[in-house]
Amino acid sequence: MPGTLVAMPGVLPDGETVPVDGSLPATATSAVGARGFGVYVHVPFCASRCGYCDFNTYTAAELGGGASREAYADTVLAELALAARVLGDNPPPRVDTVFVGGGTPTLLPADDLARILDGIDRTWGLAADVEVTTEANPESVTPESLRRLRAAGYTRISLGMQSASPGVLAILDRKHSAGRATDAALEARDAGFEHVNLDLIYGTPGERAEDFAATLEQVVAAGVDHVSAYALIVEDGTRLAARMRRGELAYPSDDVAADRYLAAEAALDAAGLSWYEVSNWARTDAARCRHNLLYWTGADWWGLGPGAHSHVGGVRWWNVKHPTTYAQRLAAGASPGLAREVLTVDEAHMEDVMLRLRLASGLPLAVLDAAGQAGAERALADGLLAAGDYAAGRAVLTLRGRLLADAVVRDLLP
């Protein structure tokens, strides 16, 4: 369904051990940033846990001792210093994008988020046109905090709206009021943010077509230049999954999710926002999330924070998940890396096809082997690939193809 991704290798800690000093093979560091370089910063703190969330996040009660928000910026800067030592004589030419995600990054003081960004600039240098994004829950920002973040160099904000329906927000255990997200979007614009995203979830049990239509109306009225919309995924171990197992809530419907996606495409396209990735729409090319485009096009990035993933020169690694263990390792002068893997040619090809096919630019048919090209022909015949682009040598999803993106990927990677 739209908003889902085929599982990628390396998301479980079953790779090889990361050296204590975090060192990388010379083959990985020889051309760092040749295709772009980004920095991801994971902030694992949340005021409360949403019922659908299985992200690596922690409330104060879940953290226990040994980790604190107050010391977190310094801990991230310690990992940044380690990253500088690892890349050593092969630093990236510049940092093109920074993305601070979570969790709720804006639970940290704006001054701490500013210090982290300044540390990245001092370490590797921010590009003159750097994109700097922070995620935020609508209730975690104020006009003053937004002005301080903008003054610190943050250019883009992504607000977790999810829905404009009070009933849907209650089922998702969201704490903000139904109108707070769009109010925060307007405040971000007033604070000078160049780009503002609203993040939506559709297909929640109990959500009616008119609920989602009202959500889209609010999004359009807010005048944002970017929208992300994802089908609800029920993850094992969450409160939402437990409620569904008990029969309190119905499981999400694929048919309903498809209807919601079509509604989003119609409303956003009419408002001047065009899809550029299956689950993302932007008003202009400049409004597209450049950081995510680095991920989708196989560039390099360093992930800072507990549970963060990194990729440099075909080597992917991931940090220990708990903030206490993460801080303890760095305090001992050791890498917080838990495990890593060196992508094989076949794995790199699979991910390239899987991710680039989701983009409006698609991928060249020439990168597919004979079996994959035969699959592309079938997808074309089924109306899942655009005929004009296919004739020009590219595989680009049609609207129906976007609804069945994962199935098309499987056909191109037999």
Automatic annotation (TrEMBL):
Belongs to the anaerobic coproporphyrinogen-III oxidase family. HemW subfamily. It comes from the Bacteria. SUPFAM superfamilies: Radical SAM enzymes. Signal peptide: none annotated. Probably acts as a heme chaperone, transferring heme to an unknown acceptor. Binds one molecule of heme per monomer, possibly covalently. Binds 1 [4Fe-4S] cluster. The cluster is coordinated with 3 cysteines and an exchangeable S-adenosyl-L-methionine. InterPro entries: Aldolase_TIM, Coproporphyrinogen-III_oxidase, Elp3/MiaA/NifB-like_rSAM, HemW-like, rSAM, rSAM_sf. Its main location: cytoplasm. This is Heme chaperone HemW. GO terms for cellular component: cytoplasm. It is found in: Cytoplasm. One of its GO terms (biological process) is porphyrin-containing compound biosynthetic process. CDD domains: Radical_SAM (cd01335). The keyword Hydrolase does not apply. Residues 31-274 form the Radical SAM core domain. Keywords: 4Fe-4S, Chaperone, Cytoplasm, Heme, Iron, Iron-sulfur, Metal-binding, Oxidoreductase, S-adenosyl-L-methionine. GO terms for molecular function: 4 iron, 4 sulfur cluster binding; coproporphyrinogen oxidase activity; metal ion binding.
